[in-house]
Design goal:
By secondary structure, the chain is α+β, with helices and mostly antiparallel strands. The chain is built from 14 helices and 10 strands. The chain has a 6-stranded antiparallel barrel. A two-stranded antiparallel ribbon has the order 9-10.
Length: about 375
Amino acid sequence: MPLLTRPQVRLNRFVCETFATHPNRPVKGSAANCNKTSAKEAMHGPIAGFAVSCQRASRASGCFASKASRSSVGPEQEAADLPAQKPGVTTSTGPQASSIEDIPGQPQSLQGKVLEAAEGAIQQFSPFSRIHQHVCGFHFYAHDITRQVEAHHFCACPNEDVRQCVIYDSDKPNARLIGLEYIISSELFEGLPEEEKVYWHSHKFEVSSGTLQAPRVPVLAEDLEMKKLINTYGKTFHTWQVDRGDTLPLGPPQLMMAFTEEGQADPLMVAKRDKLYGTNSDERKEHRRKTLDFSHQPSSAADHWMQGKGAHQLQTVKMDFKSGELSAYGCYTGAHGKMSLCTSIPTHQVLSLMLRMAFSAIHSLLLPR
């Protein structure tokens, strides 16, 4: 298990002491729910970054699970409580989706594991150490709202107005990397060229609906992050179409969008996620509408698919290969791949020769005739 830094330990202690006495905490003794939110589980996700450890507070006053997760029901009753899947919709949690076990290839060898462990001990992974936040939401393909994907964002903040997130299909250690998202403030979004804005989606409804959540984070701490995300915009590409059963990342990246109205997201997909983390999106929605400000209206330039004028999506186009630079041995390649000049003389000597030839030509033109 990765070790927490001293500032993280202090922050953990502060969070535990603060939220252990929160009035919305569950009753004492709900240890089963605490297992779902243990720091041990949080620290073993695809990105082993900061995790809020409330084990001490959990022993004193229970975890911050929703009211729905605290009811004592059997597995059959839990399955019966799940809603039906939305007709005509396929999701990344449905039966047709691929899983980590479907990836082709041989199991990692002992030598590979040893090498991986050695490299992990020697090398630095500084960009990953900046990742501090796990947010789970849902995306759909920009041209097809019937294809929906659960997306686990692991984000770092270069500054207060920009977040950059890697997206996995879960928070398990063997999760698949399926995409990335850039998140910017409304101020930065308004400064973008108009033709660029069509690639971005708003986050207001994701927050207000309660479907965007920070797993295992106490509700009040989660509110602080959601307050920052309400007025932001995201540009998202998925590289692995797990929802259609792809066992490898096939085809070009796909532009993704986020939901903007009730009834768009598959309720079964949302309920499965909520059940996994012991949360309830409807309870989150009611809580946030009482505590957060949703007066901001997203720009009409974002969420382009809502304008009824078609949708933008990525497709590859075959193009002529552009070349024309000297190689290490002075070979010049034409625009259509045909060799027009090649020499075994090193490039710097070729350039020197060409300069001398040019000066010689200029000199001959300037000489009096």
